[in-house]
Amino acid sequence: MTRNGSLRVVLQLTVFAIVMFVFISPASAIPAFARKYSLRCTACHESWPVLNDFGRNFRDNGYQLRLGKDDTVTADPGYWPVAVHITPQYLYTKATNQATDQGVKDIGSGGVADASIDLLMAGVLTQNISFLVVPTGFASDGNVHLESYWAYFSRVFKNSDWLNIRVGQHEVDLPASGHRGISLTDSYLLYSYHPAVPGGNNLSAYDMGENQQGVEFLGHDKASLTRYSVSVFSAKDSLGSQNGLSSPSVYGHFQKYFRFKDGPVSEAEIGAWGVVANYPTEFLTSGGAPIPGSGSKLQATTRYGVEANVWIGPTVAPLHLDFVYGHGSDKKELLMGADRDGTWNGAFVEAIWVPPTDLLHWGIFGRYDIIRNQNQPLSTAPSNYNDQNQWTLGARYTIAYSIRDEVALHGEISSDKVKGIGVGGLDQRVDNIMLGVDFTY
Amino acid sequence: MFYRVAQWFPVLAGLLLAAGSATAANTGNAGNGKLVYQRYCISCHGAQGNGQGEAAEYMSIKPRDYRQGTFKWRSTPSGSLPLDIDLEHTLLNGLYGTYMPTWQALDERSRLDVIAYIKTFSPRFATEKPQAAIVIPPDPGYSDQSVARGEAVYKKYNCSQCHGAGGQGDGPSAHELKDDWGNALVPYDLTKGHVKCGDKPTDIYRVFMTGLAGTPMPTFADSMSSADAWDLVHFIQSLSPGYAKNMAGAVAGQTGGVQ
Q1: Domain ranges (residues) in chain B
Q2: Which of B19, B54, B98 has the CB atom closest to A260's CB atom?
Q3: What is the ipTM of this complex?
Q4: Which CATH class is domain B30-127?
Q5: Which A residues, 295 through 334, put their C-beta within 8 Å of a C-beta on chain B?
Q6: What is the DSSP string of A6-66?
Q7: Nearest-CB residue to A374 (from B1, B59, B109)
Q8: Which pairing describes strands A285-286 and A265-282: parallel, antiparallel, or unpaired?
């Protein structure tokens, strides 16, 4: 094996490990709220960590129940707004058609994965001002970063729920939360996908699922059945930019829920969303490295789409189907070597079933993600280059939950296939088998 | 592609709106209600409905024991079972100052289901029918004169014995009160601007006439005139500016049912 070949394999595995780390770390449920309000996790989570109607309304209300026991003075003195979440797990991965010095090989490895923890700190500072701070990391690499940090001002105009303002690093109001996804091995492709030129780099790293630094304006009706959200932010991870809206971006989302008193469908939802994230394409450098704040000639990464959710059976133990479709476009200036804008379509269908068993211990889920390029940014590239298909199947069994903690067994398998990105245009596939103990307290 | 997918959404929205207008029976399914109860209620009210869930021990105001069929918020006379709509009122509004949240985010089907299940804890619901809701006469209107008369009513009925001369819940008997299950109770501080069973004038009036079952708060239905009761409502409203926003909510001719 040559040195370059070894380096390439190490780099590929490192990137894979980082991606897995990112996917696994940020899922969040906050048992501090369970302790504060004496409610079990099931009150807010359809199947952890996916929020149900009550949880969504609680979140929209700034983590307040508004019964005179919300803020730090009126809450029970024993309440401490900190919770911990971690998932020790066995993870086996197999990556096909990897380039090695011995030729194209499949590489598989397994073991107890390096785990990180989330410190979930959230609560109400004073009436109608709440907060969330989430340091995450603490794995063997020693890195810690702030996943989220924001203050939320509720009912800022005439005591109305129709204008609330969140300031800080926050997750935009996605059709299905990237940080509350039930899968622990695969993220939503639709959120992170970018078209690519073979062998080229992208200047836009925009990922809808990643938290962004900015301001969110959110409004909702009393039960959060009609909602809107607009986030204005500076897109993270752009070369030559820094905070202060040097990568000005805006995301919007609207949802409408419908409830049915009769029939097999108890609830449904439709919505629309869209984002324009701008990234510099030119910037000054120092020693070859981009100088923060010197970026110019912004170009857009655009995503927009529609969504629909259906809950079959009682909402407390439903079969929940979630369909999200989106169209994406990256300007050719953002794609090194491109001769035209890259456009694509993507979608996912996710199903979560909570069997109506005693105490609702089970959550069974599956998802299928698909990405299809429409216009390859390099017109001579194969039309299906970088197309993706991903599926996930899993189950979660809550061993015990209380008003103080939750512990669950979580297992899943998943597979992600990407067309034509391997040596000689081979497809590549990454398969995962994961079994973990997920607990939070 | 996007437009081909998106063009179906108005059609889907129309279908959903049409389906949403369908009528339904106003009775719940106790089987599904058990699941609702296990998801939301069990941590306080307990698996047996006896108010001894895992959280109960740490609560200063104990969760209600459903087995006796006694409920604080009722539109029905003292001693009667509540109407289903009374239980739904509590689900929708919560009980201010306690751990009972507002469950307004739950869908109606879930609310009716859990009400059906809660009623299975007490045999009374199988053998008794709730009485009709009391009738609440129109609010004659808030005035300084009414407040002054209400203060006299407050003294006449010795409300200060529990609630204190200033309504702060610090009367001479405040530390001796217990509920029907022997748990210590603190009289409500009426100066907070919120009342546990609802802030509307009709909510306050209703408490005088129905009492709060299971607590030392009696009914005055047999001894207090409606005029005195309205004056007393206005006196309580005068104890905190927090009530002011609710005064405009007084609607003439409301009955004891849910408004």
Answers
A1: 30-127, 144-247
A2: B19
A3: 0.88
A4: mainly alpha
A5: 304-306, 308, 314-317, 325-327
A6: HHHHHHHHHHHHHHHHHHHTT----HHHHHHHT--GGGTEEETTEE-HHHHHHHHTTS---
A7: B1
A8: unpaired
The model's pTM:
0.88
Q: Is A22 on the interface with B (CB under 8 A)?
A: no
Minimal Cα–Cα distance from B107 to chain A, Å? 7
Q: CB distance B94–A42 less than 8 Å? A: no
Asked if B103 is an interface residue toward chain A (Cβ–Cβ < 8 A), one would say yes
Is B97 in Cβ contact with A325 (below 8 Å)?
Answer: no
List the CATH code of the domain at A3-440: 2.40.160.10
- Beta-sheet pairing, A82-86 with A117-126: antiparallel
The domain ranges of chain A are 3-440
Name residue, tokens 């006439």: B209
* Category of A207 on φ-ψ map: left (φ > 0), alpha (ψ -120 to 50) or beta: beta
Q: Nearest CA of chain B to the CA of A76: how many Å?
A: 9
Each residue's pLDDT expressed in tens, for chain A with a length of 441 residues? 445 555 454 444 444 444 444 444 444 567 788 888 989 999 999 998 999 999 999 999 999 999 888 988 888 777 888 999 999 999 999 999 999 999 999 999 999 988 899 999 999 999 999 999 999 999 888 899 999 999 999 999 999 999 999 999 999 999 999 999 999 998 999 999 999 999 888 888 899 999 999 999 999 999 999 999 999 999 887 777 766 678 899 999 999 999 999 899 999 999 999 999 999 898 889 998 888 888 889 999 999 999 999 999 999 999 999 999 999 999 999 999 999 999 999 999 999 999 999 889 999 999 999 999 999 999 999 999 999 999 999 999 999 888 888 999 999 999 999 999 999 999 999 999 999 999 999
- The two structure tokens encoding residue B165: 């001369």
| CATH number for the domain whose boundaries are B144-247 | 1.10.760.10
In chain B, residues with a C-beta closer than 8 Å to the C-beta of A67 are: 94-102
